[in-house]
Amino acid sequence: MAKDGSAAQDQALAELVADAPCGIVLTDPEGRLLYANETLHRWTGMSPVADDSLQRLPDLMTLPGRLFYETHIAPMMQLQGFAREISCALRVQGGAPLPVLLSGVARHDASGNPTRYDYTIFDMRERRVYEDELRTAQKHADELAAIVRSSPNAILRVDDAGLIRSWNRSAERLFGHTGKDVMGRAVLDIVHFADHPDWFTHAVAICRTEPEAVLEPSGAHGHDFEITVVPIESDDLADPSRSYSVILRDISQRRKVERRLQVAMGEMKHRVKNTLAVVSGIARQSLPSELRDEFIGRLHALSRAHDVLTDEGVKGADLRDLLALTAEEAGGPTRFRVSGPSVPLSAAQASSLSMALHELTTNALKYGALSERGGYVQVDFDHGVVSPGRVRLVWQERDGPSVTPPQHHGFGSKMINRVLAVDIDAQVEFDYRPNGIVCAISFDA
């Protein structure tokens, strides 16, 4: 029974070595092959024991591996008796080289002379893929770190408790503190603004419902800043706490330009007002009474459009603002009812539409719905409903005197068609319905 058990054990060990998850190679001290297991045969597609051309271990390797064996592996095995995790590649019959890790240990006789070298060879393909991915990730991390270091903006990472966890060079330059000095300190103690002392707390509250928070406090260290705060989600399931990326851009120069622009806009507004006043004075003295009031009314419409444009600054005007001014001229919201979204207008569009709305309002006050106590004007407009970017405005007079189509078109309707068509490439349609005039204006916003 003992002999049978020993035989079974020897058989199990032989099978374990032959089918091991790694390659196993035995050589003599000269590197000549004594044994290679079946795993190695499957990997390489070779049979080194039966092939007379494969006499030594380096014959299994690619050229770089053979050179390294002769210059490093063989001397290490001879001098120190082992070699650990040597990266090399094996030749594969009809395929690409197989990256492996080779480790070896020397066996000695009683006199201490080496008698055999035992090598284990591990398939390194999955590890190579992992290492390539790791190197790529490290490269990306290094590139990102370089961007953060060299950015002209102050870039911070702040944890959920408001403590600073990273601080780049621009932050050191702008705020006069090194990263070592501020690490772990409250960001509100280091970056503070007199007009917004709780800016970080406010930004975190915004980030609970929005993807980012953008603030523009001023006065810190003589600079004006735009601050962007964005949450950084943690991938660590054991620590799900949030931290925040905080970017501070110095916008002091931009603020100076904006202040100069505001001064210039105010000066321009004043000069245009003076010019229109001069033209109005000349009209009062030069035009006959039947033309004077209409001409001066048109000047006032231009002046109101100019006010809207200069009040909005470089952003331009909004159609709703022009209609609000028209409502005042028409007698208030009960006489002039408006429905429609915000539509930004260029300077040319605002001026031309202001003139057209003034003519329509004047006509309604004299002859149309606004000439009677219960009459009113309904203005409905939309943006992008008919076609992308197209605005359609419909003016409809209601509960006024009965309307009949005119025998000829007066100066006002001709001016509306000409000004809107030439200045803003608009399409204008008049419909003289018995219950009130309808004017439809379409143009590209």
Automatic annotation (TrEMBL):
Its EC number is 2.7.13.3. It comes from Pacificitalea manganoxidans. Residues 9-48, 140-192 form the PAS domain. Coiled coil: none annotated. InterPro entries: HATPase_C_sf (IPR036890), PAS (IPR000014), PAS-like_dom_sf (IPR035965), PAS_fold (IPR013767), Sig_transdc_His_kinase_HWE (IPR011102). Pfam families: HWE_HK, PAS, PAS_9. This is histidine kinase. CDD domains: PAS (cd00130). It is an enzyme of class 2 (transferase). It catalyses: ATP + protein L-histidine = ADP + protein N-phospho-L-histidine. GO terms for molecular function: ATP binding; protein histidine kinase activity. The keyword Mitochondrion does not apply. Keywords: ATP-binding, Kinase, Nucleotide-binding, Phosphoprotein, Transferase. One of its GO terms (biological process) is regulation of DNA-templated transcription. Signal peptide: none annotated.
